Amino acid sequence: MPGATEQKIIDAAVRLFAAQGYDATSVQEIVAAAEVTKGALYHYFRSKDDLLFEIYRLLITAQSADMDRIIGLGLPVAETVREILVSLVVSTAERVDETAVFVRELHRLGEERMTDFRAERRRYHETFLAVIEKGQADGDFSSAVPADTVVRIAFGVVNQLPMWYRPDGEKTPARLAGEIADFVLAGLR
Amino acid sequence: MPGATEQKIIDAAVRLFAAQGYDATSVQEIVAAAEVTKGALYHYFRSKDDLLFEIYRLLITAQSADMDRIIGLGLPVAETVREILVSLVVSTAERVDETAVFVRELHRLGEERMTDFRAERRRYHETFLAVIEKGQADGDFSSAVPADTVVRIAFGVVNQLPMWYRPDGEKTPARLAGEIADFVLAGLR
């Protein structure tokens, strides 16, 4: 978890990147909006690119930790899937601005960071896949559709959220999350 | 439908954009690869941006026409949904390169084209939404999950295909399409 100063910088950067774009936002504007010194920013982040990456890394790290926590509860598999999907959809829906900025600027990440990013995403993907596969193997879920396609469907809607979801629209993140979990579990029955 | 020369230009452009990027590809390279004259290219396309847009417009126009044709068959609603999804997934999966290029370069479209693009996408979305809603209203589908979320889930996986699907991988477009249709229809039961 980031400290208070780091969090202030991240919050300011997310607001500015989302409002005026990554290119149009200077480090000077970020430190002014965050009410910190340039020295403080460079203490935590090597560059504007580094800040962008850190914004997204924090989100996916929190999502991974949350999935591990849910699996650790040892609930029945349908409950585990519901909790994982609700947690993922809510955390993504609440942060569509960050995710949209990150996706748009993804091509800026250097090779090393792209590798880190893909590894983290792959771990998340494979952990969820293993949950679905176990549910199918134990007969709790239908095996009519292979687990890899079920996971692509569940993550597809989550990854597309930044393209259309607005947290101040008519559906709250929790309501949308419940609907998505209901549909995926209905498909697995 | 484009004529033979136009199609040769489009095919060459797609190959080059996918292999080396949009920026790195010159109009000269496209005409050389397509074995046409620069004059022929500029007869069909005002600019490289115009060509990029046309590549994608042809795909979504064909997908829309196909959905209209399927609905016109007057099949039972579950069959209609299956045919629409299979057609959409197959046509997208066969053209992940085009779609990936387009998504990456989306920000280059001017305001007028973005408006056209969004209108075409919206029409497609709303037509499919109406099919699901009618199936729910007639009692052929479960109404447990609202139709708008069902559509977001079905289109989410399709729109994410360019991020992970490879047509030369282990799943053919037709097989993947069948799995996705099976899962969506299972969720609607």
From TrEMBL, chains A, B:
<dbReference type="InterPro" id="IPR050109">
    <property type="entry name" value="HTH-type_TetR-like_transc_reg"/>
</dbReference>
<protein>
    <submittedName>
        <fullName>Transcriptional regulator, TetR family</fullName>
    </submittedName>
</protein>
<dbReference type="InterPro" id="IPR001647">
    <property type="entry name" value="HTH_TetR"/>
</dbReference>
<keyword id="KW-0805">Transcription regulation</keyword>
<dbReference type="GO" id="GO:0003700">
    <property type="term" value="F:DNA-binding transcription factor activity"/>
</dbReference>
<keyword id="KW-0678">Repressor</keyword>
<keyword id="KW-0804">Transcription</keyword>
<dbReference type="InterPro" id="IPR023772">
    <property type="entry name" value="DNA-bd_HTH_TetR-type_CS"/>
</dbReference>
<feature type="DNA-binding region" description="H-T-H motif">
    <location>
        <begin position="26"/>
        <end position="45"/>
    </location>
</feature>
<dbReference type="InterPro" id="IPR036271">
    <property type="entry name" value="Tet_transcr_reg_TetR-rel_C_sf"/>
</dbReference>
<dbReference type="InterPro" id="IPR009057">
    <property type="entry name" value="Homeodomain-like_sf"/>
</dbReference>
<keyword id="KW-0238">DNA-binding</keyword>
<dbReference type="Pfam" id="PF00440">
    <property type="entry name" value="TetR_N"/>
</dbReference>
<dbReference type="InterPro" id="IPR041490">
    <property type="entry name" value="KstR2_TetR_C"/>
</dbReference>
<dbReference type="Pfam" id="PF17932">
    <property type="entry name" value="TetR_C_24"/>
</dbReference>
<dbReference type="GO" id="GO:0000976">
    <property type="term" value="F:transcription cis-regulatory region binding"/>
</dbReference>
<feature type="domain" description="HTH tetR-type">
    <location>
        <begin position="3"/>
        <end position="63"/>
    </location>
</feature>
